[in-house]
Fold this protein.
Amino acid sequence: MQIDLLSPSSFIGGQPHHQFQWLREHAPVHWHDEPSGRGFWAVTRFEDVWAVDRGFTTYSSEPTIMIADAVGNGGLGPYKMMLMMDPPEHTGFRKLIRSEFTQPAAHLREGRIAELARQIVDAVISKGECDFVADVAGEMPSFVMAELMGLPLDDGRELYKLTETIHTSAEALPPGAGQAAVAKMFEYGMGVIKEKRARPADDLASKLLACEVDGRKLEDPEFLLFFLLLVDAAGDTTRNLLSGGLLALMAEPEKLAWLRADLDARLPAAREELLRWTSPVIYMRRTAKHDAELAGAQIREGDKVVMYFGAANRDPGKFERPDELDLARAPNEHIAFGTGPHGCLGQHIARIEIDAMLREVLIRMRDFELAAEPEWLPSNFISGPKAMPIRFRAAA
Ligand code: HEM
């Protein structure tokens, strides 16, 4: 079996499940060469991914969670993004924003998110066709992040375009385009600092600028890294779940009909299954702090250890009939949001966004049909279509 988990072409059309299956069966902790780096261990079984994600005393998130070492903090010197810190430093930073993302806090946003979902479908419903990614799925996370941060909704849309470039593999972009997108994000973030310091409001950006870590205010680069993390983490993940999820439902019309038949009752389990099925975040990397053994493999201090969430989510050792889309699956302890200290902070908001958007789309839009083949994001980090032209009929 030819194993290539680096080339973005391996992820066009979806995650390489045939490679993942071979790896889980023959080499669950597999040494993968890296043409421009030292190589890495690819971890594909659920129980090992779980152990690495929780085992932060052995598997560090520093210096970066990307496979390429060069992808650091966007040139902000010694400053780090929370995603690339270990406890206890990470715990202090996460605490700064945790209260905005609890389940009760997320539920307070439910009404507004439902209203946004209605507006998004209102804008396309009479057209009979649209690019589901840009016109529907992408709009929701862009708007929600803009509202959280206290920014104009149109700016949310522009920031989301930058996120897409940042998550595209470097070889699929013109030279320097990734760094330019990060620089633009920081430039925009500097404007936010200026505006929110002058006119603080009841939003996350103002709160971040006012809060204290270790008895001091955040420095500008620390705010910028928080800003980049939140915009990046919230954008094409949720978008890809929605687009990849609809694509999966369109491929199995009888399951789509079953879901529609009792949407409110069936949506929660279906949403979890779509998360397991699509696993929008392909991987997170850790770096071994000391020698360790993992499923029989000898990991050396400094080795890169890469967790493949999509592979873990199809592990027959964890899930019965893992390659079947079972919208009523229960239990469904997938790991699409990760686990451990870095487990997705936005997961409660993400679930509310997904439910609101799917509810609106499945009730008001009917007879979906692809108007052209979906175009996939050339990325080995984030999985999903970047364009998906569809035709549909408005429900009577
Ligand atoms: C379907 C949508 C989403 C998926 C699949 C997803 C997945 C993930 C994953 C896999 C991680 C890393 C977990 C780990 O290392 O164990 C993560 C981290 C994170 N996510 Fe999400 N995410 C989604 C939506 C969101 C949203 C909507 C937000 C914000 C509103 C968000 C904010 C974050 C943040 C801040 C982190 C970093 C947490 C930390 O370092 O402590 N995510 N997410």
Notes: Residues 226 and 285 are 19 Å apart (CA to CA). The first strand starts at residue 29 and ends at 32. The chain has a mean pLDDT of 95.
